[in-house]
Amino acid sequence: MESLGAVTLRSIAISGSATVLAASWSIPLAYLLAESKRLRLLVYLVEALVGVPTVLVGLLFYLLLSRQGPLGFLGMLYTPQAIVVGEAVLITPLITAVSYNALLAGIQRYKELALTLGASSRQAALLVFRETLPSLVSSTVMGFSRAVGELGVALIVGGNIEGVTRTLTTSIALATAMGEYEAALKLGAVLTVIAIGVSIAVRLVRREWELG
After folding, report:
1. Quick check: 91 and 22 in contact, CB under 8 A?
2. Tens digits of residue pLDDT in 157-190
């Protein structure tokens, strides 16, 4: 059985990478949706996709990355990279939806005022991002929490390979299947501590930001 430390570090690395990747396109997309009234109808679609089952996302990526799939030539199936991309797609609607609300309020509060004071569109946009940064960070952390706790993508496209793609959630599933409930509970406790710890850390940083 792989050590708890190795599995934990791998889970954080995979989910962290997926979160950074998802945020890199989710936040700009949220800004685009908030700025354009014609595109705001798409927000309902994005919000609906937040609840997509992880197993479904995992299955879709398996079909894409399998040897018979259109992306099979990449050889990504059963690799950490496959999990990263799958989790990034999974949490994209969540980060986009939460960021959209923050950016919409920021545009209404800061951008219009900045433009009337002579700022350029780029300067006004930077002001909006700066003022809503704590909320954007919070939305990203929410994405990380979902990514690190998901099972479907990690299991289906990762394969739960020891030393390669095994994560906390797939380890919990394996331990439960083997009847090792004590080990499963320990893994679950670690997963919970990670999610709570990250959330508390971000709240503290956000409070310092707002007070500063």
Report:
1. yes
2. 999 999 999 999 999 999 999 999 999 999 999 9
The helix or strand, by DSSP H or E, that contains position 148, with its residue range, turns out to be: helix 133-149
What crossing angle do the helices spanning 121-131 and 80-106 adopt, rounded to 10°?
110
Name residue, tokens 């979160």.
19
- DSSP per position, 33-54: HHH-GGGTTHHHHHHHHTT--H
| Dist CA 121 CA 119 (whole Å) | 7
Ramachandran region, residue 158 (left: φ > 0; alpha: ψ -120 to 50; beta: rest): alpha
CATH code: domain of residue 109: 1.10.3720.10
| Stretch 80-104: mean pLDDT | 96
The backbone torsions φ and ψ at residue 100, rounded to the nearest 5 degrees and listed phi first, read -55, -45
Q: What is the C-alpha to C-alpha distance for residues 7 and 171, in angstroms, rounded to an integer?
A: 8
Q: Which pLDDT does position 211 carry in this prediction?
A: 64
How far is 79 from 161, CA to CA, in rounded Å? 9
**Domain enclosing residue 178, as ranges:** 4-211
φ/ψ (deg, to 5) at 157:
-95, -15
- Give the global pTM: 0.92
Q: Is 60 helix (H, G, I), strand (E, B) or coil?
A: helix
Residue 22 makes CB contacts below 8 A (sequence gap 6+) with 87, 88, 89, 91, 92, 95, 143, 147
**Type of residue at 71:** L
Q: Number of structural domains, the chain? A: 1
Query: Of all helices (H) and strands (E), which one includes residue 23?
Result: helix 4-35
